[in-house]
Design brief:
The chain is of the alpha+beta class. The protein folds into 3 domains: about 20-45 and about 255-430, 3-Layer(aba) Sandwich (Rossmann fold), CATH 3.40.50; about 65-245, Isoleucyl-tRNA Synthetase, domain 2, CATH 3.90.740; about 460-629, Isoleucyl-tRNA Synthetase, Domain 1. Helices cover about 40% and strands about 20% of the residues. A hairpin with a 4-residue loop joins strand 6 and strand 7. Helix 15 packs across helix 19 (about 545-570). The chain binds zinc ion.
């Protein structure tokens, strides 16, 4: 909450004018209800289903970790070179001639995962292995035959250029397995212990012990070429430092292919526009290559997926995986009572069960946060049918960071079309990241971050805003350099000082006449009207950097450098309250006020402060924001 308060304060300090009475909390039950309705609808439409996915487990904390919950550390490890002998005598002979051994040699940092290998992948352009693609090797110790497959992704330079593929225990291999339709053989459980269809002597072993035992046996078989000691980067649990274990598990998936098609159409029709344009192409590419979306997460907080399993989740998934098998088969296999049918019921409350032998297990997984964030445009308005929704949906513009385009806008457009038949907004404006002065990412650990509050204190929010509009182009990252903000601070001071100077030249007894004075179309007035048009056009085109440059150039070099001096000359020696003075000073005041208005979106604080000075003197009314623009 403290972070939230801090963020609100910063938003206000920088001049964000939001309607805070409509602030919402992501886990608000009213929003959750709408999120659940979407899930129910997708279930009925056959769009959500259970399927396998690799998740990161900390074997020590016994919990699944999101990528952000993992750190990367350099650790000592091994690189083991292992021979997988060919099955056919002919292939053995050929291999012997080419490599000096009767098989293909793979290199691995994790020998224990070999028990779960289901292929060896080589690059199709690798002359060493070309002729072996499609042939079979015998996986040592496990004694299973596995194929040599061709994969463009395999790096010729890494290890031996032959990659053992373990779909159950490596995210990269999992993807290869999916593409190639490989079998998934699970050999490590969620506690980091060896399991599954492996020789009994390894069952229950920790992965490190199993690795050692395997290397010993391979060495005796003459299949271990060598072991190199290496230092390499491993992903570790952020909380306890234990290396994470990628394991296969059943998750909820959404097939959003039909929605991606609709979203693509909406982009092509111009129903939604992405600024900058190049990112629209990227979004189109994302939709054209849409993948099933894993919507379940093993988190402690969030929106719980509203599903109940008759008997158990394990029973449901087992029946799902083993087509043709029955509940009785499950009971035999695991030597337990099933207490249910494995069917699924949706809802937040436990389903009624008239049968006392049936128990229900509640889904423990949460929705991926993007599953709910993707529905924000209508869930925050109360959903279809509510007053706010009818009044405000679809909205006009969404502004968010470029790096979450595929996570957020991609989902918001799809969900919008799915639930409401309309795109959620007509324009998405992407922002870049503000980088440290050397162009690197700001980070707490590097200590190169800049606190917005410090910048406000030192240079004021207007200087920071104007720098941002000038330097941070839509969708591009920009390094924050102090001297640039300083330059903008000088301009902000110039606005204040020039305005004060203009006001000083108006005598009290002239104010009343100036108030009612009509402005004549001088060259200066016409040039200012042109300028306003130009800046407005740049704002409309989201070329805010050009707009910022326009207002700075015009105010500084036209109004201050030229016109104030000109007008000073024109009224020189004119008596106070004379017609000429009133005419010229009225014009000068008009020029100032029009400049304040067009500069206001860029530098709201100083322009408003000057405006209020004018109000005090009776030379202006109201406030600049909203009323005047
Ligand atoms: Zn841990």
């Amino acid at each position: 909450m403290q972070n939230a308060d801090n963020a609100r304060t910063q938003e206000k300090n920088i001049g964000l004018s939001a309607d805070y009475s409509r602030e919402f909390f992501t886990l608000d039950p009213k929003l959750t209800k709408i999120i659940y309705e979407t899930f129910y609808k997708m279930y009925e439409d056959g769009m959500v289903y259970r399927d396998k996915r690799i998740v990161n487990i900390c074997p020590n904390c016994k919990t699944a970790l999101a990528d952000i919950d993992t750190d990367h550390e350099e650790r000592r490890g091994i690189f083991a070179y292992i021979i997988y002998p060919f099955v056919n005598e002919e292939d053995k002979k050929l291999a012997k001639e080419k490599f000096g051994v009767e098989g293909i040699t793979v290199a691995t940092t994790r020998p224990e995962t070999m028990l779960g290998d289901t292929a060896v992948a080589v690059n199709p352009n690798d002359p060493r292995y070309k002729e072996f693609v499609g042939k079979k090797v015998l996986l040592p110790i496990a004694n299973r035959e596995i194929p040599i497959i061709a994969e463009e992704e395999v790096d010729l330079e890494t290890g031996t250029g032959a990659l053992k593929v373990t779909p159950a225990h490596s995210p990269v291999d999992f993807e290869i397995g999916k593409r190639q339709g490989l079998e998934i053989v699970n050999v490590i459980d969620e506690e980091g212990k060896m399991t599954g269809n492996i020789p009994d002597r390894f069952k229950g072993m920790g992965t490190t012990d199993c690795s050692k035992a395997l290397c010993g046996e391979l060495s005796e078989l003459g299949l271990l070429v060598k072991i190199e000691n290496i230092k390499h980067e491993v992903a570790v649990c952020e909380r306890c430092g234990t290396p994470i274990e990628p394991v296969i598990s059943n998750q909820w998936y959404a097939n959003v292919e039909s929605l991606a098609k609709k979203a693509l159409e909406a982009l092509h029709n111009g129903d939604v526009k992405v600024i900058p344009e190049g990112q629209q192409k990227a979004l189109e590419f994302f939709y054209e290559n849409i993948q099933p979306w894993c919507i379940s997460r093993q988190l402690w907080w969030g929106q719980r997926i509203p599903v109940w399993y008759s008997g158990s989740k394990k029973l449901h998934d087992w029946l799902n995986e083993n087509e043709g098998k029955t509940v009785e088969d499950f009971e035999k296999e695991f030597n337990v009572k099933a207490n249910g049918t494995g069917e699924i019921k949706l809802g937040e409350e436990m389903p009624d069960s008239s049968n006392p032998g049936v128990s229900w297990e509640q889904e423990s997984d949460m929705f991926d946060t993007w599953f709910s964030s993707g529905q924000v445009p209508f869930s925050t308005l109360g959903g279809p049918g509510s007053n706010d929704y009818e009044k405000y949906y679809p909205t006009q513009m969404m502004i968010h960071a470029r790096d979450i385009l595929f996570w957020w806008t991609a989902r918001m457009i799809m969900f919008g079309l799915y639930k409401t038949g309309e795109v959620p907004y007509s324009t998405v404006l992407l922002t870049g990241m503000i980088l440290a002065s050397d162009g690197s990412k700001m980070s707490k650990s590097k200590g190169n971050g800049i606190e917005p509050n410090d910048v406000f204190q030192k240079y004021g929010a207007d200087a920071l805003r104007l720098w941002y509009y000038s330097d941070a182009l839509p969708g591009s990252n920009a390094p924050l350099r102090e001297e640039k903000i300083k330059g903008n601070r000088n301009f902000v001071n110039k606005i204040w000082n020039a305005s004060r100077f203009i006001l000083m030249n108006i005598e009290d007894e002239e104010i009343e006449k100036i108030q009612g004075k009509e402005i004549t179309e001088t060259n200066r007035v016409m040039a200012t009207k042109e300028h306003i048009k130009k800046v407005s056009l740049n704002i409309d085109k989201y070329q805010l950097n050009l707009g910022a440059e326009n207002i700075r150039e015009f105010f500084w070099h036209e109004l201050c450098d030229k016109w104030i001096e000109e007008i000073k000359g024109e009224i020189k020696d004119q008596p106070i309250d004379s017609d000429l003075r009133i005419e010229k000073l009225s014009e000068l005041l008009w020029l100032l006020k029009e400049n304040l208005k067009i500069m206001h979106p860029f530098v709201p604080f100083v322009t408003e402060a000057v405006w209020q000075e004018l109000v005090k003197l009776g030379l202006a009314e109201g406030v600049l924001m909203v009323e005047q623009i």
